[in-house]
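Hi team,

Below is the intake form for Bifunctional DNA primase/polymerase from Streptantibioticus silvisoli. Please confirm the fields before the structure is written into the shared record.

FORM ID: S-0412
PROTEIN: Bifunctional DNA primase/polymerase
ORGANISM: Streptantibioticus silvisoli
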Amino acid sequence: MREILGSGRRFTWPLGLLKSLGRKRQDVDRDRSALREAALTCAEQWHWPVLPGVGHDHDHAAGEAGRSGAPAAPAGRIGGGTRGDRRDRRDRRTGASGERRQRPCACPRPDCAVPGAHPHDPGLLAATTDHRMVQWWWTRRPDAPLLLATGDPVSAVSLPATAGARVLEALEDLGVRLGPVVATPTRTVLLVAPYSMEELGDLLSRHEWVPSSLRYHGTGGYVVLPPSRTGGGTVCWARDPQPGADGTPYLPDIAVIVDMLVAAGVSAPDGHRLSY
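The structure came back. Fields below:
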């Protein structure tokens, strides 16, 4: 009988690689569990309406390879193909300059200004406090960013991250009690008690000039909450939520902090009008 070359050989995975893969799997599971628990805490305990963000297009790389006509690596081979094939795949991931391309948003817009960090399907009006719906969303989409629909019972105001760090210290030096504060890669977001546009207008009318770097997240708006990962990076708490008298996070009135936010925003660059 003619011998088939290579038959009977067994491929053995390196022990170090197996351990590394196991740790990565545990990290992914832990991150997903934290997202789901955060969403359920917001909805069930705090009665904050939430929904999943659009997230990232995890199939983009495969789609790019398919559109370019490049063959996939043979099944069962690690790093298959010639050296040139591997170089081509690396170039598609990083671009000619060698800089790794940012993974795009899963929404239809190729030029999305806030990749991964906005509502799409479901839309913002689907935000809910129903724990069953929240559980279902993050079971089906465990990596989806956590979005908070602002208005009632929680609103927000945000400013550029550099100015935000300064104003937080200044407010605390004055003994001002802050509510939860979210830090994104580009913005500092202060969660506050609900406010109306009329109330906000009265407060801002006292100032000769209000910087456009300040943004107001009231009814019809949203913010991204920790521990989400967006196209810009990781979202975390700059100031953790602290329980108020009713067990929900304490939220200051916007009138208490808006003057210092305006002053801090005067010296801050505006940045992209949609960036988070």
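SUMMARY LINE: The CA atoms of residues 6 and 76 lie 14 Å apart.

Thanks, M.
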